[in-house]
Amino acid sequence: MPRPPDPAKRLELLDRVREYVVRNGLAGLSLRPMARALGTSDRMLLYYFGTKERLVAEALALDEQRPLFRFESLLARLAPVHDAAALRRFVEEVWRQLGQPDRRAMLPLYFELMAVSLMDPDRYGPLFRNLLAEWSGLFTPLFLGLGMSEEEARDEATLLVGSAFGLLFAPLADGEWRRADTAFRLLLDRFEPRWRACGGAGT
């Protein structure tokens, strides 16, 4: 009877794979070079994870590493977000933390994942769709709390997430984070009146 995979070894490999992917990107990612760099074999990686796609998906979803987990924890620590002003403060804090140097290292990987999902939708499309769904899922309940319908809340979350991702792209290329910060505040200036009109005016 084959010995079951060691959970501790599996988690260690995931963490190292994540570091490798952040450092080297997804383009041309191959199991053998990655396995050599990690001091293991492609056969061992397949033993623990089954496929390269599953390995990448699990590595990117490591809760203690991904920004989304940090913001879910932040939201749980905050007072309930019941009005537009509180929602704006939370969104601004999410943006601020995404721009911190320790978080920026992950952002190029998100955009690369978007690109490869377009070029290879069968392999990477589900990963990027899951990423967008998780981010939208963070904000949708907050818009519901303002009194929006379920469809309106999903649409508003999609608009916010898509706009934020768009504004993150340029400063990664040109380093103009201050300009991106200003643009994001202007964006929220456009959004907030609608949030207030939904019954969450706040003070």
SSE class? mainly alpha
Strand content: under 5%
Series of H and E elements: HHHHHHHHHHH
Structural shape: elongated
Mean pLDDT across all residues, rounded?
A: 84
Distance between the termini: 65 Å
How many individual helices? 11
Beta-strand segment tally = 0
Radius of gyration: 19 Å
Query: Percent range for helical residues?
Result: over 70%
Low-confidence runs:
none
Major β-sheet annotation: none
How would you characterize the overall build of this protein?
This protein is mainly α and 203 residues long. 77% of the residues lie in helices and 0% in strands. The protein contains 11 helices and no strands. The protein has helices spanning 7-24, 31-38, 42-49, 52-60, 67-77, 84-98, 101-104, 107-119, 121-145, 150-174, 177-197. α1 (7-24) crosses α4 and α9 (121-145) crosses α10. The longest helix has 25 residues, at 121-145.
